[in-house]
Each structure stands twice: as C-alpha cells, then as structure tokens.
Amino acid sequence: MTSTLLTGIGELVTNDRPDERSDDPLGVRRDAALVVEGSRVAWIGPAASAPAADEVVDAGGRAVVPGFVDSHSHLVFAGDRAEEFAARMAGTPYAAGGIRTTVAATRAATDEQLTSHVARLVAEMLRQGTTTVEIKSGYGLSVHDEARSLAVARQFTEETTFLGAHVVPADTDAAAYVDLVTGPMLEACAPHARWVDAFCERGAFDADQARAVLTAGAAAGLRGRLHANQLGPGPGVALACELGLLAVDHCTYLSDDDVAALRDSGTIATLLPGVEFSTRQPYPDARALLDAGVRVALASDCNPGSCFTSSLPLCIALAVREMGMTPAEALHAATAGGAAALGLTDVGRLTVGARADLVLLDAPSYLHLAYRPGVPLVAGVWQGGRPV
Ligand code: NIG
Ligand code: FE
C-alpha cells in the first residue's frame, strides 16, 4: 500500500475535539503532518516527528481541512430556472410550484443526459472541496422517473434519498399520489436509496402525509429525513423530532417549541443558507439554535429552483456573515455536522482511521473560508487518499 506524507501544514483542522470541555471544536493543530495509507489517514502529529513515507507533499504552511460533507442536494434534474431566478430578483416571490417546471424537463431527459449532468455537478462540488454528497430524487414524480433518478444518483454516492413526496404532480389527486409514493413508487425506489424524505410545507405535503411517507419508507428499510419549516412555520420540525429522525432540513421558521424539540430529540438541524440567499427569505437563526444546544449542519441544497449553488465555501461564508455562526462553528457544521446528519463516522474529520478526504486551502487558516467569500481557495482535494 502506498503511503503519502503531507507535511508543512500550517494549520490542520481535525474535528478531533481535545476533550468535551474544550472550546476548540475543530481540534486545530499547528505545524502538523499527516500520513495517508491507501484510502485512510494512518498518522497525524507534529511535522517535526513525521515518519518516512513513499511520497512527500509539502503544504507550504497552508491550511488543510476535512473534505466538506454536503448532506442535502437535488442534483438529478434537467434544464434550469434562470428566468425564474431573474424574475424573483425583480420581486416575484419564490414558490415551490416551480418544481413542476423541472419535473417536465427531467422526465424528457434521457438517462445519459441525467447522468452526465449529475457528473458535471459532482465534479463542480469536488473542485470546491465537497468529498461526500447526498443526492435526492424528486424531479421525476412517477414510478419510472423516480426510480431512474435514484439509479443515476447511485452511480455517484451511496447517500441517495427517495423524495417522491416533493410536490404533488400537476393534475393529480393528493391522496392518490401519497398512496402511489407509499406503495409502488417506494417499492421501485427502495433498492436504490438509503434515505426517504418529504417536503412538509404548505403547498406540498401536510404532517399526516409526510408521516405516512416516512413510516412506509422505514418499513421498507429507509431512514427518514425531512424538508421542514422552509417557507413558513409548520408542523414538520416537530414531526421530525417526534419520529427521532437524524436530521431535519431548512429550519428557517422555528417556534420556541421547535427549538426545544430539536434540543431534546438530538435531531440535527441542517441549515441551507444558499436558499435564503437565492430566495431573499430571512436566514435561519443559527445562533439561537447553537445557544440552545441544538446540533447544526450546513449543506448546499443545490437544486435548480431555490438555490443553484454547489459551493459549501459560499454556505460557510453566508452562515458566518448572516446567521451568527463563528467561522469555526460553520466549518464544523459543513464537515463533521454533515457527516453526523448522514450517520457517517469516518468522514468529516481527519483522525487516524478516517477516510483520507481532505482539502488544501490556498490560505494560512480556515478563517479565510469566511473572510474571503467568493475566492477559489481550494488548492487541492484528496478523496479516499487520492488527489483528484
Ligand atoms: O429544498 N424545498 C423543496 N425543494 C427544494 C427546492 C426545489 C425547487 O425549487 O426546485 C429545496 O429548496
Ligand atoms: Fe432540498
């Protein structure tokens, strides 16, 4: 097995908190080195005492952070909605109904077109440091189109999510559609998915419908996650906490009871600030969540409607500038937080035995991720121990 020594790391973010009481959640080490063997991290320590290795890479005093873990994306689609975005910037509010425009384009695309489009977006993410990505279906909304969307997604990640309950397709009865999602569509999709999700929001699915989808998904072996409280207050976050889901996503409009439920259940609030940036809605109050002891993740929500960015560095910068997170909290949420939201323990951290997914920044410190928004700071990415 080939070993590589990455040395001269001015600042290494491990996410290995020295101890529970430490105020450094990032486990930062200075003047560090790291040895990769095969696909894993084999050694971490001071550069001065690094062991020999087959190859040596000098980071030149720059910062190294764990690869970003994007726990929420909708990459399987065709077409775009740039006109809708332009109209929104001119004052038309965001409405979930635009999803149906993308459904029509996605149904009309071939498997090859969908696959090459996802490949392009995954490569775009990788260039920006995302080494683990979750991908949802949700623009097919028929048994055939949801199943093929997931089969496409599965070529790129094991973290695939069945989102047949995205919206009710045009000219379809809602109750009949929920029966389809919880019956034949779930049966066709479950073999390609690890997770099941629903859009619990006024204009999409109510709490009873979302509960039915999550319960049926669980019976088919899929773990649940939920889109909730994005466009207004609602029952979704409470439902996610009651069901003990690992993560509930958006969390823009929360009541005090929702915050208490998140804290008590341990359900992770995944915040998606690119959405608020692109829809001009208020940002979620990350500070209040963190101060209440809620676990927080940051993800892109990359999709053609509410947020067409694949950039976690942008999301980190927005979380710091607009949501009251410290740069350390934001980076932690986009790495260890995303991993926790997917139930993964070997990514989102750089510790011995973890997958060697790491990002070399063209900067002396991770602080620059928030400090220099919009600047392409990712100078190198290793995924599974290999430079990409
Ligand atoms: O997560 N909230 C629902 N779904 C997507 C938006 C999809 C779209 O507008 O196409 C989201 O924001
Ligand atoms: Fe989403």
From TrEMBL:
N-formimidoyl-L-glutamate binds at Y139, N303, G305. The lineage of its organism: Bacteria, Bacillati, Actinomycetota, Actinomycetes, Propionibacteriales. It comes from Nocardioides taihuensis. Gene3D superfamilies: Metal-dependent hydrolases (3.20.20.140), Urease, subunit C, domain 1 (2.30.40.10). This is Imidazolonepropionase. It holds the Pfam family Amidohydro_1. 4-imidazolone-5-propanoate binds at R81, Y139, H166, Q230, S306. Belongs to the metallo-dependent hydrolases superfamily. HutI family. It is found in: Cytoplasm. Keywords: Cytoplasm, Histidine metabolism, Hydrolase, Iron, Metal-binding, Zinc. Residues 55-110 form the Amidohydrolase domain. Catalyzes the hydrolytic cleavage of the carbon-nitrogen bond in imidazolone-5-propanoate to yield N-formimidoyl-L-glutamate. It is the third step in the universal histidine degradation pathway. Its cofactor is Zn(2+); Fe(3+). It comes from the Bacteria. Residues 1-25 are annotated as: Disordered. Binds 1 zinc or iron ion per subunit. Zn(2+) binds at H72, H74, H227, D301. Residues 14-25 have a biased composition (Basic and acidic residues). It catalyses: 4-imidazolone-5-propanoate + H2O = N-formimidoyl-L-glutamate. GO terms for molecular function: imidazolonepropionase activity. Residues 246-379 form the Amidohydrolase-related domain. Pathway: Amino-acid degradation; L-histidine degradation into L-glutamate; N-formimidoyl-L-glutamate from L-histidine: step 3/3.
